[in-house]
Amino acid sequence: MSIERPAEQTIRILLADDHGIVRAGLRALLETQPDMAVIAEAADGPTAVQLTRELVPTVTVADLSMPGGGMDTIRQINELNVATRVLVLTVHAEERYLLPVLEAGGLGYVRKASAHTDLLDAIRTVARGEVFLDPSSTKTLLRGYLGRVNAGDELDLGELLSDREREVVKLTAEGHTAQQAGEFLSLSPKTVETYRHRAMQKLGLTNRAELVRYALRAGLLSADT
Fold first, then answer.
1. Which of 6, 172, 184, 188 is the most interior residue, by most CB within 10 Å?
2. What's the CATH code of the domain at 69?
């Protein structure tokens, strides 16, 4: 374990992975970014939870298979109720891992095989409180989840949300940021966030991960999205 203190106004990152060489590679990549700083490293789940509690990083990047249980680590960090978002970095590609990560409170899922292209964008996205799934993960999640939902379980959002709110929910579930959604809808990012906040209030949801799951169950998306 190592701890460093970064300058202010950076994305403060905790790396949690049981392989030292993986952590070293990730640190080398992240430290090339002027808006990121690795403040600590952990080799297991309990240490990751402890350091998250003590240091409150902006993002904890957690391996799913490290000692102490990656999924349990996500839940425990989420239960701390601190301003830390969890991004999962894993070798697993199976669809059975995707939905549990979101349900446990994770806001992102990146495969180690694509870390060199996706990790930086994922960290910045999750740091803003947005959900990040790469296109392959999104399609896998949609197919796996929609295949488990019976037609009778689908929810009718027509009476709850306005057309604009429904559009914002759909774009959010597809992984678009407020900036990107605003470009699609010719709205400012702030207006998009307002619509999203209203939709979440109407639906009784507390975070964007729940919003993604609700959109999936409601049938707003197709597996070919």
1. 172
2. 3.40.50.2300
